[in-house]
Structure formats: structure tokens, C-alpha cells
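Review form for a predicted model. The reviewer records the input and the model, then writes brief findings.
Reviewer: anonymous (R2)
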Amino acid sequence: MPKSVLLQGMNEKQVIIIGAGPAGLMAAQTLAEKGIKVHVYDQNKAAARKFLVAGNGGFNLTHNETIDSFLEKYDAVEIQEIVRNYDNKKVIQWLSDLGISTYVGSSGKIFPTKNFKPIQVLKVWLEHLQNLGVTIHFDHTFVNFDDSLVTLNTTGETIALKYSKLILALGGGSWKKTGSDAKWVEILTKKKIEISALQAANSGYNSDVKFHHLQGQYLKNIQVSFLGNCKIGEVVFTKYGIEGSPVYFMNRFTRKFDFPLTIDIDLKPNLSEIEILEQLKSSEKISPILKKNLKLSTTAINLLKTLDKETYTNIAVLAKLIKSFPIKVLSFRPIDEVISTAGGISFSALTRNLELENFPNVYCIGEMIDWEAPTGGYLLQACFSTGFWVGDQIACSLGSENHH
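Model under review:
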């Protein structure tokens, strides 16, 4: 027997948001503050699961830098415009308005102060939304939509809800256990909405050489480069290859080429090859110079010792390799274990307001859209920014409808 479809009547101005992640919740807040009634539906039993998991590695909510430098971290001009409109300063102000104080970490990342754990930040936010009259419904799985109804499954029945505006905030395709399972891709593809295939982003690389003896060890203050794109930071060796923020930063540049590829690590970014060579010439014994004079870490020295003896003892070649140690990479990590996904709904399928060209009154926000950014607060920032952008646009359009 087919499951019943219950048509639930709504007042004319009802906005429905599918997905209670950071983008969906920010859209809900923006609308509710303008007096618009918002219902949020999520397939999980609790809000913002991925937001909480993201807090496991240090809960950085945005990044402290000048807006121009900030925007360079995004690969699409459309997302840059949206982030400029609701920038890192506005996120800090928003947190402050919720009573959450922040501080800037040594690398420029913005964290909530020590007494605020991710779950507490979320709790404060959800209480604020509740006070604004936002209703969140859990255990509701998105099934489909047309130009007036959105269909959801909940506890064995199918319901169809009438909307005046529908916001899809269904997330990317990584970390399925948090709910971002990307099942929406198939639903939207059938509606002829242009979608770039989801791919691993902020991903480690599987390498050709397996660095078993270096597993779990860090190279700090090094520079990773690929075809003239450089990023300083730290890299960690794993059983399959390398991870770390400068590695993640290279994803978008390496994505344009076929694997295998070679990325280079500069183990001593603050010295030139000539300066390194001068030091190496000063003694017959190479290892003490690497350690004492060049102050290379044990991990860096162990990496150099993976070279054959002939190479390691040729100081001219060694100096070159200290400045540019090649690592051949074969592939990204599996999509489910990476931090985020690249790809998604193409900006060409959306208006400037992030409304679907084929479906007026349906908007897409957050990681569903085809943009990419490195870790360090940039992913969350763009989720907040797209949520605000669409919430603001809808509030303006509903407001103006009321004045007619």
C-alpha cells in the first residue's frame, strides 16, 4: 500500500528550510529576525551534526585576516561576493551577540573562548532560534520537491508541505554519518539542474612512497608547492601518504590535472639554496649540519634519509632537495573521510540570489553549491555567509510583497 501523502496547509508566507546545519540555521535566524515564520526539517535526530564533528580538531569558526586576503581562499567569484557581504567580522559580531566571546589563535583562526565547547555554542544558538520562533523538526528526510510542494519522509509516512519559499541546505558529500549523504544530487539531476560531480576536497593525498617509519610525525613550518602555488604550514605523514592544511590548500590546483602528480616540500623556507649549500660545505659530516646549523627537525632529517646514499652525500643535490623535496601523489582520499567536497550545484544553475533558475522560490545554500575553500574557518564562514545572503534576499522579497 502506498504511504499516505498528507498535505499540510501553511500560511502564505511560510518559509521551509531543509537541513539544520550552519547554513540552514543562519538562514533561519536571518528570516526569523525579520518576523518571518520558519520551519526547519532535518533527517537527523539533532541539529548540526557535522558542525559538531568539525569541532573535534579545534573549533575554528572563521579566520582573522583582511577581507581581500580572506576572499583569495575561495575559488569562485560568486562565493567571494557573498562572503564579502557577510564577512568574518560579521560572524564575530554574530557570536558576540549570542554571548559567545572569541579569540584569535596563533595561526589567525578564530575560536570561541575556552569555556565554550562546540556543543555549547550550538546550544546557545538553538535557544536563540527557539526564542525567535523558529521550529526545527527532526527525523524528516528530504524526498522531492516541485514548484509548490516539498515532500519528506517521517516515521513511515510521506508528507507534502506547501511552501512560499524553499531553502535547500543539504550539505556536501563527506562524512555521511553526520547526515551529509549527497542523496540530493540524484533528485536535482533528474530536474535537469546542472551539478558538477562531488569530489574529495580538503583531502590528504595517497603517495607513491609509503612513509611507514614517519607515520604520525609532523613537518612544521614548511612550504608545500605545486606549479607556483605555495602554502606554508605543517604536514603530517600517514600510513597512506600526507595530510595537513597546506596539502588541503593544494587540492584545488591539483584537481585540474590527472594523477600521478608531484608536489614539492620546502623544508627550510627561510633560507635560500645557496645559504643551505654554504652550511653543508662547512663540514664532512652531513647529519650534524642538518640538525645544528640548519636546525632541521628529526622528521625532516628522517625524510632526507629516505634518499639513496649517493644523493644524500651529494651536497649540491641535497641542498636542492631540502628546498624542493618531491612527493609523488597518486590520488585523493575516499570522499567519505575527507573534510569537505568540491563540486555541487553550478552557479550557472542559480540566480545571483542563489535561487534555482528552473525553480523560482527554491534556493540552495552552503556546501551544496560548487565552491571550494581550504580549512581554517573558511568553509564554515561561507556556510554562514550563504545562509545570511539567502535569508536576507527572501526577507526583502517577502517584505516588499507585503507592501503591495
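Findings: Residues 81 and 93 are 19 Å apart (CA to CA).
Further findings: The chain has a mean pLDDT of 92.
Recommendation: see findings above.
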